[in-house]
Amino acid sequence: MLSFNILWLSFAALFAFVVLRGAMRQFERRQQLLQRIHSQGRQSVDSLAGEFGVSVQTLRGDIRHLADKGLVLRRQGEVLPFPEQENIGYDQRQIVNVAGKRQIAARAASLVQDHQALFLGTGTTVEQLADALSDKQGLHIMTNNLHALIKLCQLKCELVVAGGRVRRRDQDVIGGDAWRFFQRYRADVGIVSVGGMDSYGQLYDYNDDEVMAREALLAHAGYRVLVLDKTKFDLPLRCAAGQLGDYDAVVTDVPLPDKLRSPLAAQGVRFLG
């Protein structure tokens, strides 16, 4: 009887050790997963399962746990950081979906004619447009995007830059300074991006300062173009920033769902992507 008790206690101790070890591995994996999502943005569940060496079912359990705590968002086979007040850093965004942003830039550039006045807003997708405009002649460009400014200086164009308080992390000018800048001019074409879009075509951004600057730009642009890459889809944020129907053209790297395109196309909105 004593031998049986000793054997049972040994088995119970081993079982407890295995359970504890598994729980520790699960905790460490979830911490690493959270760090990965927040540092690199939207991720595929299938690819993450492969990288972490677990089944898709196990990884979905991890993501469900993190989502229940308000740390991440689940979106149809993908996971993304829970929207915060501020976007991820500019340098991080520059390396996300570069090929898609270049496609968008080339398509948006086709909407610009020689000798037009052009507003360019903030963001990495708009920055890519600077390269795509290299074959245009006689452009008059006005922008609050200081990253794009570096590339725009290589073009043969007249260039005007917003002055005021610089948001150092993103190297742009937003808020009241940008609002006053765009109020002073009129452009033939205004090209902007936003922080995100939900499944109903409502647009969003991270803060009111970005929304304020964009509203002034669009109010003084004759033809309004929205550039939006796929990482912005199904991404509702804190601040409402209009809707797809506010634009004359919407340029994407992958087609928008037909439920969004069809009604707006009937109203004259042009879709490229």
TrEMBL record:
Gene3D superfamilies, per the entry: 3.40.50.1360, Winged helix-like DNA-binding domain superfamily/Winged helix DNA-binding domain
Provenance organism: Vreelandella sedimenti
Record-annotated HTH deoR-type domain positions: 26-81
Protein name stated in the entry: DeoR/GlpR transcriptional regulator
Any Pfam family matching the protein: HTH_DeoR
Keywords: Membrane, Repressor, Transcription, Transcription regulation, Transmembrane, Transmembrane helix
Keyword check for Repressor: yes
Gene Ontology MF terms: DNA-binding transcription factor activity
Membrane spanning stretches: 6-24
Listed InterPro entries: Carb_Metab_HTH_regulators, DeoR-like_C, DeoR_HTH, NagB/RpiA_transferase-like, WH-like_DNA-bd_sf, WH_DNA-bd_sf
